[in-house]
Specification:
By secondary structure, the chain is an alpha/beta fold. Helices cover about 35% and strands about 25% of the residues. The protein has seven helices and ten strands. The strands form two sheets. It has a six-stranded mixed β-sheet. A hairpin with a 2-residue loop joins strand 4 (about 60-65) and strand 5 (about 70). It starts with a strand and ends with a strand. The structure holds adenosine-5'-diphosphate (2 copies). It comes from Loktanella atrilutea. One of its GO terms (cellular component) is plasma membrane. This is Lipoprotein-releasing system ATP-binding protein. Belongs to the ABC transporter superfamily. Macrolide exporter (TC 3.A.1.122) family.
Length: about 230
C-alpha cells in the first residue's frame, strides 16, 4: 500500500462570500514507502493548506486522505488524533517548540505521551540530536538556540515517534548550506533505512532535485516536476 493517498482534494475559504478563495481544486498525490516528494509552490499557492490536510490537522471540503490505505474521512476524533500523533511527523516553518522545555525534553515528551520509558525516550532523542549535530545543545531551551538549531530540534521531534509519514514545510530554510546538507542527508538516511515516506515543501530547486520526484502546486492542482 502507499503510505499517503490524496484523491481529488478540494478546499476553499469563505464559501459564498465575496472574499471566497478556492485553494485546492482537485489535488491527487500518492506517496510510496521510502519515497521523498518535493512540494514546490509559490507563497500563497496553498502549500500549508495541503500539508495540514495531509497531516490531519485540517479537513478538505471534499476528497479523501488515506494513510497506509486507511480512509481518514469518517474517522472519529480519537482515532484521528492517535494517527496524527503516532504515524505522522510534522516539521513547521516556525518550529513550535515548547519554550519552557529543553531541546531534549521537546523530543522525549511526545515519546513519553506514547508510553515510551524515560530512558529509552532519552536515548532515542540523543541519537536523533546527534545525527543532525545538536547533541551538545540537548539541555538548552529553544530561546537559547539559534534558528537553525531550533529547526534541527524540530526535525528530531517530528521523527521521535518513528512516524510512517513525514510532512515538512521548508525544513532546511534557515540553515547554512553545509548544515542543510547534513539535515537532508540525515533525512534521506532515515527514509532509506525505515521506509518512511516524506512530502517536503521547499523553494530550493537544488534540494528538490535531490528528492525522488517533485510536484508543484499550480491553480490548486499538482503537476509533475519542479519547474
Ligand atoms: P501557502 O502555504 O502556499 O503560502 P496557504 O495554504 O497558507 O498558502 O494559503 C493559501 C491561500 O488560502 C492564501 O490565499 C491564503 O490567504 C488563504 N487562506 C489560508 N487560510 C485561510 C483562512 N483560514 N481563511 C481564509 N483564507 C485563508
Ligand atoms: P497536543 O499533542 O499538544 O494535543 P495536537 O496533537 O493537537 O497537540 O497537535 C500537535 C502539534 O500540531 C502541536 O505542535 C500543535 O501546536 C500543532 N497544531 C495543531 N493544530 C494545528 C493547526 N491547525 N495548524 C498548525 N499547527 C497545529
Amino acid at each position: 500500500d502507499p503510505i499517503l493517498t490524496l484523491r481529488d482534494l478540494r478546499k476553499g475559504y469563505n464559501h459564498g462570500k465575496p472574499n471566497e478563495v478556492r485553494v485546492l481544486n482537485g489535488v491527487d498525490l500518492t506517496v510510496q514507502p521510502g519515497e521523498v516528494v518535493a512540494l514546490v509552490a509559490p507563497s500563497g499557492a496553498g502549500k500549508s493548506t495541503l500539508l495540514h490536510i495531509a497531516g490531519l490537522l485540517d479537513t478538505p471540503d471534499t476528497g479523501t486522505v488515506a494513510i497506509r490505505g486507511e480512509d481518514m474521512t469518517d474517522l472519529g476524533d480519537r482515532r484521528r488524533t492517535a494517527i496524527r500523533r503516532n504515524d505522522v511527523g510534522f516539521i513547521y516553518q516556525f518550529h513550535h517548540l515548547l519554550p519552557e522545555f529543553s531541546a531534549l525534553e521537546n523530543i522525549t515528551l511526545p515519546q513519553m505521551a506514547n508510553g515510551v520509558a524515560d530512558a529509552d525516550a532519552k536515548a532515542r532523542a540523543m541519537q536523533l540530536l546527534d545525527t543532525v549535530g545538536v547533541a551538545h545543545r540537548a539541555s538548552h531551551r529553544p530561546a537559547e538556540l539559534s534558528g537553525g538549531e531550533q529547526q534541527r530540534v524540530a526535525f528530531c521531534r517530528a521523527l521521535a515517534n518513528d512516524p510512517v509519514l513525514l510532512l515538512a514545510d521548508e525544513p532546511t530554510g534557515n540553515l547554512d548550506p553545509a548544515t542543510s546538507d547534513r539535515v537532508f542527508d540525515a533525512l534521506m538516511g532515515l527514509v532509506r533505512s525505515t521506509g518512511l515516506a516524506a512530502v517536503i515543501a521547499t523553494h530550493n530547486l537544488d534540494l528538490a532535485a535531490r528528492m525522488d520526484r517533485a510536484v508543484r502546486l499550480v491553480d490548486g492542482r499538482l503537476v509533475a516536476g519542479a519547474a
